[in-house]
Amino acid sequence: MAIRILSVDDEQDLEVLLTHYFRRKIRKGEYEFTFAHNGLEALKLMVEQPNFDIILSDINMPEMDGLTLLSKINELRNPAQKCIMVSAYGDMKNIRTAMNRGAFDFATKPIDMDDLSVTIEKAIEQIEFVKKTQQEHFQLQSLQSDLATAGEIQKAILPCKFPPFKELASVLDIYASMTPAKEIGGDFYDFFRINEDKIGFVIADVSGKGIPAALFMAVSNTLLRSVAMATETTNECMDEVNRLLCKASVNSMFVTMFYGILNHKTGDIDFTNAGHNPAYILHEDGTVEKVKQFPNFVAGGIEGFVYKNNTTHLNPGEAIVLYTDGVTEAFNEKDEPFGEERLEDSLAELYYEDAKTIIEEVHNDLGEFIGDTTQSDDITMLVIKRKKN
């Protein structure tokens, strides 16, 4: 696009001089000149055509001088617009005033057109840099807006109403939370009714960060929930989810996943751990049991991998605690991880609490541990507790 230059000068000869000297650039469409003869006329043109790149203004003019015009231009606060002031050679006081008020450069009369050409080219370099910076800023703002929207959508995907199953509120206490390290995260949790006796529950952590991880998280969650309704056991479900994710995976993305089926009447749990952190069971006597499991591979990593399931049991009054590595790998100012031992110590003091309190208290312990250290990973927890009759 042509560089638009507004020349403001009460001398008609300058118009002829500029159009003749820059005739080739004008003919090629590189420069486009508009002429005004005083500051008031220039301001009117700037209102009608607000996209001038360079203002080439004389200082001494009738009706409104160049310094006043410069002050008016400054009020527009357009960093991509550059002012080049023109005055008599000996008029250094006004020239210095113009520079102090933000003029880009100046030229003296009689104008050396070669020197003015260099000055205009320097101004164009600055203008292009500012416009590029502005464009990048607008793109960043747009991205931030998109990320904020994506974060809200992601929150809407995750269950957020507790208790989730009102008809089971007398026998099950369920609570979960996900705190992303950035606007959006790669962790997710979910729980859903499979039949009258059983509920499915899952917690997972997608590899990578940002939008790709969030998209893969949504795909993984959707696939698991749909496949879970068509399979009997958790390992059969994971076999199929893994097969589908391997086909959908881009840039070798994968997900660690703990999927379980709880019979809320008997307390029996069938679960398959696909490369995820181990679960804990909080017993009524305050002991914390790390649930034993087969070392299955992550989902979406190896097509055809055959998953093995495990079983455990949840007595009335006991809780199963699931979490992502954002908990155990939260670092403090000494670069020490929170770790499994500290998590187990926290849980041991919470065996009698409800599901929500267990999660909130672990978060409090994490906050005290990491202090002012920036959260580096998503922190997600899911707790299911069988209630006593």
TrEMBL record:
<keyword id="KW-0378">Hydrolase</keyword>
<dbReference type="Pfam" id="PF07228">
    <property type="entry name" value="SpoIIE"/>
</dbReference>
<dbReference type="InterPro" id="IPR001789">
    <property type="entry name" value="Sig_transdc_resp-reg_receiver"/>
</dbReference>
<dbReference type="Pfam" id="PF00072">
    <property type="entry name" value="Response_reg"/>
</dbReference>
<dbReference type="InterPro" id="IPR036457">
    <property type="entry name" value="PPM-type-like_dom_sf"/>
</dbReference>
<feature type="domain" description="PPM-type phosphatase">
    <location>
        <begin position="168"/>
        <end position="386"/>
    </location>
</feature>
<dbReference type="InterPro" id="IPR052016">
    <property type="entry name" value="Bact_Sigma-Reg"/>
</dbReference>
<feature type="domain" description="Response regulatory">
    <location>
        <begin position="4"/>
        <end position="124"/>
    </location>
</feature>
<dbReference type="InterPro" id="IPR001932">
    <property type="entry name" value="PPM-type_phosphatase-like_dom"/>
</dbReference>
<dbReference type="GO" id="GO:0000160">
    <property type="term" value="P:phosphorelay signal transduction system"/>
</dbReference>
<feature type="modified residue" description="4-aspartylphosphate">
    <location>
        <position position="58"/>
    </location>
</feature>
<dbReference type="GO" id="GO:0016791">
    <property type="term" value="F:phosphatase activity"/>
</dbReference>
<keyword id="KW-0597">Phosphoprotein</keyword>
<dbReference type="InterPro" id="IPR011006">
    <property type="entry name" value="CheY-like_superfamily"/>
</dbReference>
<protein>
    <submittedName>
        <fullName>SpoIIE family protein phosphatase</fullName>
    </submittedName>
</protein>
